[in-house]
Amino acid sequence: MNLILIKPETVATVRTGLPLALQTTWAHIDTLHERIRNALAEDDFSTLGELASEHKQRVIELAEALDASHADAQSQVVVLRQLRTRNDELQQLAERSLAAAMHASSHARQRHASINAYQSQQQRP
User: Fold this and answer.
1) SS3 of 22-80
2) From CA 125, how far away is CA 121, in angstroms rounded?
3) Measured between alpha carbons, how far is residue 79 from residues 34, 43, 72 in Å?
4) Cα 12 to chain center, whole Å?
5) How do residues 56-90 score in pLDDT, each as one tens digit?
6) pTM recorded for the entire structure
7) What is the DSSP letter of 18?
């Protein structure tokens, strides 16, 4: 994972200097990041597929709008690095969430097997 840190004031300056369409798309992506983060925190895996699909579409829109805006190279780098950083953070969170879910599932299977073994032992004469 390559977290690329950019000063918040740099991001804010670049963001406010972008065309409105880019700012709006970026805001939609921020909202999606929060929704994905919440879905992961709540183990709401049924929602993640839909959110991931929408996120992919918004990122494509952002890239196209960024290209069409002819923003200066520094602004483009800041936007793309910020997006990469947020995506890396979500990836790390998703990996932790998946590991926790797998651990919980394994623990539940072990507990179920122990209960079955105990019940089998109790049913013997």
Assistant:
1) HHHHHHHHHHHHHHHHHHHHCCCHHHHHHHHHHHHHHHHHHHHHHHHHCCCHHHHHHHH
2) 9
3) 18, 29, 11
4) 21
5) 899 898 888 888 888 888 888 888 888 888 888 88
6) 0.68
7) S
What average pLDDT values come out for the chain (125 residues) when binned by 10 residues?
66 85 90 91 85 89 87 86 86 83 77 75 71
Percent helix, strand, coil in the chain (nearest 5)?
Answer: 85, 0, 15
Side-chain-side CA neighbours of 42 within 13 Å: the count stands at: 10
CA 78 to chain centre: 19
Which residue is associated with the tokens 């991931």? 52
